[in-house]
Every structure is written in C-alpha cells, then in structure tokens.
C-alpha cells in the first residue's frame, strides 16, 4: 500500500513543493520548479525511483506540526533511549534552491539514519556522485575538475524574472541582491521583495569543507553536512561490496552495476542538546556551485517570511486556523518570480485508486488561478493578485483566438502529455502521466472566471492600465468568436464536446463584467454590442440549459443530468441562490450526486464502459464540490445544514490542515493530486459564506 496522502506534508519555497511523509521520507521533489522533472519520485513508484529518508533508529513518530503560520515542519521521534526532533523546510528561493533537514536531540541519546537515492528525470537517471572539497583552508585556487569553490562564485549566476536586473556590486566584486525591507523602507514594495529579503538572509556563507555532488545532464545537486557513504544492494536487499565513491562516479563499471540499487546512507549518534544539519542544494550542472544555505539563519528567515505574509490578515471565527492554512497553501502554490499559480504541486496522483484517471496538475489553469485570486484579494492579499495579473498579460499575449485554458508557470504553451512507463504508479494507478493533453481543449467557462477575478481586483481599488483592460476586451472578443462552439466543460471531459450550462453562464458573466466595467468604472468598450450578446445568452440558457418539465438546470443542453458546477451559477450574478430554480437544482444534486457524509461527486459516472468524460472507472467525491454545496446552503438560508456539512468536510483535512482533490469516504483516504488549490479556495469561500450569513 502506498503511503496515504494525508501522511504527507508540503514544504514550500515559492518555486517548488516537495512532499515528506510522516516517517521522514522525501518521496516527491521537483527541482528547481514545480514543473521540473522530479529528482525524488518514489510516491509514483518505489524507493529506487528516488527518495531521501531521514528517521530515528528504532523510533516512532509521536508528533508533527508546522511551526505556526509557516511551512517549517517539525517531527518528533521517540526511541528507547531518547527523543529527537527533525525540522524540514525550504528557504524562499531566488537564484537556486535549498532543502534543509535539521536534527536535534531533545533528550537522552538517539541514532538517526539516512537513505538517499537521487534519481533525476522522474527516477529514470542515476547520476554520477562524487565527493568534492569546498572552501579548503586558505581558499586557494584549484584547477582540477574535482574541486568546487562556492566561496568564489556568485550565488545568483543569472538574473531571475522579467523585471530589471536586481543585482548590484557590493564594492568588492561580489554580487548582492537589491531589495527594500520593512526596516529601511517602512513596507515591502511588492511580494518579490519579501522573497528576496528572505532568500538573502538564508544564503549567508557557510564554513563547509566538503560535500557530495550529483550530476546528470543539466542538473546538479550538492549535499552538505555530515558525510553519507555510498552503498550497493541487489534485488534481494543484500549488500554488495563496492569500490566506495568510485562505484557512483565517473569510471564506474556499468557491467558490474547492472541490476544493482545504489544510494548513500549514514547513521549518526547524538546526545541531548546536540544538532546536525544537512542541506541539499540544486543548481545547473554547468554553473559554478552555489553557496548552500546556512541552516540556522535559513530557518529564521523562512519563519519570518511566512509569518510576515500571514500576519497581513486576521480572522475571528470557528475556521480561523483552516482559513489561515488554506491561504498559506494558495500562496505556496504561487511561483514568486513568474506569478503563475499551479493547481497542485504533484502529478498523476489518482482520482481512482488503481485506475487511469491520473493527471499532471503542475500548471497554471486560468480558471483555478482566477478563483484563487478572488479569495486572496478578498482576504487583503492584493500583492500576489497583481503578480498573477502580470503573468496573465504575458501568457495570453497573442491573437484572442489562441487563448488556452492552461499554461506553464512561466507562460509557455507546449504542455505535451506523455506517459512514464517505468513507474508503477501510486497504488498501482497507471498510466503515470506528465504534461496535460487537456491544454488543447476549449472550455467555455474560463473567460468568465478570469473576468470575475479581474473585476474583484478592480473593486478592491487596483487600477486598470491599457494592457490589463485591453486584455479583458480581447477575452470578451474570444467569447464572441466562440458563441456557437460546444466545449469540453469545467471538468475537462475527454469525450465529445457539448454545450455545458455552467460554461454558457460563465460566458454570460464575461460579457456582464465587461459591461459593468464600462458603466461603473468609466472604461471604454462597446457596451451596446456586449449587452446584445449577454442578453442573447441569458435567453438561450433559460431556453436550453433549464428543463421546464423537471424545473432544474441541466449539465448540458442535450441531457437531463445535473453537475456540481451548477452550484456556481449564483456566484456569477446570473441567478440568486434562493431562486426556486436554483433550489430545485440543488435538491436534484443532493439526490443524484451526494453520498456518505454529505460529500458531493462532480457528475455521475457509469458502472461499466466509458462515462461521458470518455474514461473508464469511477472517482471519489470532489472536495470543492462539497464546499460549493456548503456555500449554496449558507446563501439560501440553510445555515444549520451548511454548518454541519462544513464541519464534516473540514474534518477530512490532514493533521496539518491540508486537503487533496478528492476524498474516499469508504476507505477514509484522500485521493487525487495533493494539496489541491481548488479544495483550499473552496474551503475559504465556504467559510466566508457562513460568516456572512451569520452576521
């Protein structure tokens, strides 16, 4: 059985999002970005597909937690002879990436052990690994290839991001980052300033004498800290004599290594009060080695960064902690340089254990990002919203008809989907896919959600400029071009296109927000023409998307099914939550799509054969759909039911407050990619609806 998703913790540096299990195994890590090929991929295969396990010998985990309002993870182990705390985190990333693992003996004596297996390219590539000298006494130059001297190389070899070069000389020829801090400017100028402030504090020079350097293709990883030693084992787990470091580096005899498993291990004894630190640092293999983070300063900077961001908002209610953690997750899934917001930091975690519903979510969906921006702005986090708006302007800078539903986190368009046949899959769920074939779909709802999000920004006092308003006019033009085109729907159906009622209402919303922008904010647009198109859609939806005989809105114009996305119609302003048609539609959703513990499926799937989505198998209730039902209950006067369902669904969060895409109410397990932005933004919106209804 695979490690349950709820046993994983997310770490975050605003560039990537690794997962570490309760038992101390780092089973998923993509360096340096969310969408980079994984270097630890055992979550989708086995331990030889890459992992880094750090655990206490003969120990058991007695507690774990995030240091409040951070992604600094503390795990406490108890052994027969003592107690030890492991602290895992990533400092906010700027030029390179660091993963820090700290061990402190709290009581008695303990022994900790490491098992490190670096496998680049989703577990396919075993790198050369060799020991390198760092900062030798006197820091004398060395010309031989095995020497690395980070003390003589800049920690930021290339400027990052789309703005001006933010580096300056420090007067001694060294590159230093330029930023404004609260102490010298009263407030940070923008979100990037906070990140660079934390990254600079974490990157102080260290007195490190040696490290392990792993190289394969364009990637390199440098491990510093107490030294780990190489090992070889056969498929029966028996140790095989090796030639030390030479067995893992250049010149290794591949005939001898064939069929053997390779890694590095180490056991270390600590007494009360003693501490050991390890840092794994990524860089390009063709660059000079970077300076690894100094663990103590890096932890302090990381805690300060997250607390500073979280302190911008205060809460007062039953779900304060859940809202705070959810906002932190949404921020953690935002790339600090590009502004792209990923739907989740993982790929191919199944929606149906053992099935084929396995997708890569490490990209920026316009819909998901727009909904995320809405809740961030409503909770006074406009800085990230502006960063996303700038990302949007760059990503969709083209002919309106070339709009995609998703992009890479840097705005790239090619997200070709392919399968990784060498991976056995989480819970044997295959195929394991990376990339996403839905990138080429037309989904009619996307523009409406983006227009609503940009309207939220506008109403929060963020001024439009020629580019941002021009973008919105182009989006409206995209809707007009596609007025008579069926689509694949919000759930990315891989079957035949249809006219989905939710999508048509979102198109109505796009025109409506354009009209409001002109009438209420003085912007320039063809209101008369947009009004004609909006009103045409309104009449069409009531004629074709509403079934008079049943008295409900339907999933598509050509069927009588319901779909959980219909719960979102009131959010657009198209209809009130307590309208009789909406109440009847909600009742039908309860009848057809609500299961045990009140959890809600997206739509019905078939017992056998292919469902409307073009896939085989079932899926589990979709977390955001249940939160949408909570929101509908709260806004239509069913407060007691809303409160009960909210408590139940929030209760399915992990002990760290994280939510996956779906929840299996039979096995009481999370399913789908993890953690999921959709689920966390749904929680926030449901809590907001409950608070507003109770005021």
TrEMBL record:
Query: Which organism is the protein's source?
Result: Kocuria gwangalliensis
Which part of the chain is the Trehalase-like N-terminal domain? 2-126
Q: Sorted alphabetically, which InterPro entries does this protein's record hold?
A: 6-hairpin_glycosidase_sf (IPR008928), 6hp_glycosidase-like_sf (IPR012341), GH15-like (IPR011613), Trehalase-like_N (IPR045582)
GH15-like domain location, by residue? 319-687
Q: Which domain of life is it from?
A: Bacteria
Q: What is this protein called?
A: Glycoside hydrolase family 15 protein
Q: Where is the composition biased (Polar residues)?
A: 161-171
> Which residue intervals are annotated with compositional bias (Basic and acidic residues) in the record?
140-149, 173-183
Annotated region Disordered: where?
Answer: 133-192
